[in-house]
Fold this protein.
Amino acid sequence: MIKWLHHLLNPHCPDCKEEREDSKVCESCETLKAQLALSNHEKERLLNRLLEKPNENQVTSTPDVKPLLPSSGIPWRVRRQALESEDREKAKLLKTKESVEDLEKELGIAEEARESAGKS
């Protein structure tokens, strides 16, 4: 009740004006403060993660890495000749196989197909 009378009698009192300005809460300032606190927390976590000593118990195993041949440095003629020679070798291997039946025997397909054909 006393504050109300004081405000009624002295509406522009400097102390009251300062108190009113301090009591106002700026929502955007509060949002910025929250975002700054979050950002500082994330930076602190990252810094701690970078500064922690690595665990020596972890063993990193690298799979067998086969070096790639630089295909861009090889001229097309040389590359074509290499591919053609590989194809010739594959063709020779296929010619040495006598027939399709021999290949089927190797895979075991022929026996199963013949048995199923004989039963039906």
